[in-house]
Amino acid sequence: MSEEQSLANVGFIGMGVMGKNLALNLADNGYSLAAFDLDSGKVAAAIAQDRTEAPNSAPRIRGCSSYTELLAKTDTPRIIFVSVPAGDPVDHVCSKLIDAGIGADDIVVDTGNSLWTDTRDRETKYAGSFIFFSTAVSGGEEGARFGPALMPSGDPYAWTRMRPVLEAISAKVDAETGLPIERREPGNPVIEGEPCAAYIGDSGSGHYVKMVHNGIEYADMQLICEVYHLMRHAMSMTPVEIAEVLREWNKGPLHSYLIEISAEVLDQVDQETGKPLVDIILDKAGQKGTGLWTAVSSLQVGAPAPTITNAVFARALSTLKEVRVEASKSLPGPAGNGITTSREEMVEQLHDALYCAKICAYAQGFQLMQIAAKEHGWDLNFSSIAKIWRAGCIIRAVFLQPIADAFERNPDLHSLLMDPFFAEQVGRYQSNWRSVVAQAVLAGIPAGAISSALAYYDSYRTEVLPANLLQGQRDYFGAHTFERVDRQDGKYHVKWADPERPLVKA
Question: Which CATH superfamily groups domain 10-203?
Answer without folding.
Answer: NAD(P)-binding Rossmann-like Domain (3.40.50.720)
